């Protein structure tokens, strides 16, 4: 297939672009490089640097079989301080893309959604049928687009899939996580091991969890990419399927730090700080639906494997 990958210079987008290209698809990446990196676009993919909201219509005139839409603003804290950036970047831009797809009859879409649409869950693990009550603007914008995509699938026969990511981590060879402003736990902890930070802050140790620190479901980015390939193949016209993607196992912040200590051999000093606003205590996915429908099974589910791959990537970057 000839595929447009928006945000293919970013973390998840670059890994998926690499896997799609390896699987024999013709991949065109569009990215405005606001958070991505030109050298993260995989070899073999054509790269267009452009603002998607401006460029979507023109880009799709050349004809595509499908779009994988990763380009988005994705920092929870920032979304609360600068909501316009999120409604504009995640909603207005995606609506332009949907209209361009309709206009140019591109019907296949895989959309990056998020576990943040669920807010504070009532029960763990979280199935797709759980109430969607986002507690931050980021989650609200992604949920709004999940609804818009359902309308497009119903009205215009789009073959669409939303994938709700839990905590994506790890790396795929030379493609990994390198945000200019890093807020994610595993890369922050590894920065301590690399001597780029003095210590890690644990955001609260009084949560109702086994050791008092927050529980998250970490999924390897290459397993996540595999689910995208399957979602693309199995999409059906007129249907919008929504899948949670996680491993179904939760790890506390302290367990993640301990695993990083084991993998890196570094003591990684940590200190308890105040809880971060908007953090739910536990987020663990039920991915049973994805496993059944997409015949997808995470292959790198162990936390130490995920951390080892993130560590190899982080060390290679400074070598
Ligand atoms: N944490 C710390 N110290 C840090 C950074 C994080 O204790 O320096 C804690 C957080 O409080 C949280 C856990 O580590 O409990 C994971 O935090 P991340 O920032 O790595 O990830 P989040 O769970 O906050 O959010 C991620 C994505 C969101 C997505 C969400 C869905 O960044 O986009 O997963 O699960 F919505």
Automatic annotation (TrEMBL):
Annotated NAD-dependent epimerase/dehydratase domain residues: 4-246
Pathway entry: Carbohydrate metabolism; galactose metabolism
Gene Ontology terms describing biological process: galactose catabolic process via UDP-galactose, Leloir pathway
Recorded catalytic activity of this chain's protein: UDP-alpha-D-glucose = UDP-alpha-D-galactose
Cofactor: NAD(+)
Record key words, sorted: Carbohydrate metabolism, Isomerase, NAD
InterPro entries given in the database record: Epimerase_deHydtase (IPR001509), NAD(P)-bd_dom_sf (IPR036291), UDP_G4E (IPR005886)
Name of a matching Pfam family: Epimerase
Principal EC category: isomerase
EC number: 5.1.3.2
Xref: NCBIfam families: galE (TIGR01179)
Similarity section: Belongs to the NAD(P)-dependent epimerase/dehydratase family.
Known partners and oligomeric status: Homodimer.
Protein's name according to its UniProt entry: UDP-glucose 4-epimerase
Organism: Halopolyspora algeriensis
Organism placement in taxonomy: Bacteria, Bacillati, Actinomycetota, Actinomycetes, Actinomycetes incertae sedis
């Amino acid at each position: 297939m000839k595929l447009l990958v928006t945000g293919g210079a970013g973390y998840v987008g670059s890994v998926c672009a690499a896997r799609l290209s390896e699987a024999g698809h013709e991949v065109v990446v569009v990215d405005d490089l606001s958070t991505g990196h030109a050298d993260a676009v995989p070899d073999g993919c054509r790269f267009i640097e452009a603002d998607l909201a401006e460029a979507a219509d023109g880009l799709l005139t050349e004809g595509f079989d499908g779009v994988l839409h990763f380009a988005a603003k994705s920092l929870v804290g920032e979304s609360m301080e600068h909501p316009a950036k999120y409604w504009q970047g995640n909603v207005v831009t995606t609506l332009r893309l949907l209209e361009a797809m309709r206009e140019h009859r591109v019907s296949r879409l895989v959309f990056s959604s998020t576990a943040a649409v669920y807010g504070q869950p009532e029960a763990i693990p979280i199935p797709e049928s759980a109430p969607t009550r986002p507690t931050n603007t980021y989650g609200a914008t992604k949920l709004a687009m999940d609804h818009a995509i359902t309308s497009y699938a119903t009205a215009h026969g789009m073959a669409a899939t939303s994938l709700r990511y839990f905590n994506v981590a790890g790396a795929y060879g030379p493609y990994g996580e390198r945000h200019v402003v890093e807020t994610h736990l595993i890369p922050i902890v590894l920065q301590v091991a690399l001597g780029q930070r003095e210590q890690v802050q644990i955001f609260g140790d009084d949560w109702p969890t086994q050791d008092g620190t927050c529980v998250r479901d970490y999924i390897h980015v290459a397993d996540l990419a595999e689910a995208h390939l399957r979602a693309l193949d199995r999409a059906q016209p007129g249907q919008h399927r929504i899948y949670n993607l996680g491993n179904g196992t939760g790890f506390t912040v302290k367990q993640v730090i301990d695993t990083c200590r084991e993998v890196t051999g570094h003591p990684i000093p940590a200190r308890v700080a105040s809880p971060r606003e908007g953090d739910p205590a536990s987020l663990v996915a039920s991915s049973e639906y994805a496993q059944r429908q997409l015949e997808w099974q995470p292959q790198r589910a162990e936390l130490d494997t995920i951390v080892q791959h993130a560590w190899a990537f982080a060390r290679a970057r400074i070598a």
